[in-house]
Amino acid sequence: MTGAPAPLHPQMAAGRWATMPLVEQMANIGSEVDRAIRAHAERKAVRFDHALARALELFDLTAADARWAGPRRREILRAREEFCRLFFDPDVDAASAAGLSRYFLHFAVAARRRASANS
User: Fold this and answer.
1) 68 vs 22, 64, 109, CA distance in Å?
2) How many domains are there within the chain?
3) pTM
4) pLDDT tens readout for residues 8-33
5) I want to staple 80 with a disulfide (CB 3.0 to 4.6 A). Which of 2, 31, 59, 87 is the partner?
6) Are 37 and 102 spatial neighbours (Cβ–Cβ below 8 Å)?
7) Within a domain: residue 13?
8) Is 43 domain-assigned?
């Protein structure tokens, strides 16, 4: 009998993720997105596979968060779609990876500012 695969981020899947604000969730997703982009560009298949799996898990945890229903969830899922297109759509624009990195960079900057303001 097979079940769901073990989470790659067990603490996050256990509920910690649901306590984080959206900006921090998106910043963390962005870290994995950038890791996947770099590994893919460097043709590091194992690193790419792991980063891809971690990023998709974080996208899915975020999309499943009831706080982000409606337009926020649509944006999260649209970002996930664009992330997948980078690697699985043969007609993807070469600048798409840089654009997606910039998109997530804004969340990283905002999360860092938020953390600095709270400390």
Assistant:
1) 8, 8, 20
2) 1
3) 0.86
4) 556 555 588 999 999 999 999 999 99
5) 59
6) no
7) no
8) yes
DSSP string spanning 20-48?
Answer: S-HHHHHHHHHHHHHHHHHHHHTT-HHHH
Closest of 110, 116, 119 to residue 25, by C-alpha: 110
Domain that holds residue 30: 20-118
End-to-end CA distance of the chain: 48
3-state SS, residue 108: helix
Helix (H) or strand (E) holding 113: helix 96-118
* Per-residue tokens: 11: 């603490």
The letter for the amino acid at 91 is D
For helices 71-88 and 45-64, angle between their N-to-C axes, nearest 10 degrees: 160
On whether residue 9 sits in a domain, the answer given is no
The string over 42-67, giving b where at least 16 C-beta atoms fall within 10 Å of a residue's C-beta and e elsewhere, is: eeeeeebebbbebbbbbbebbbebee
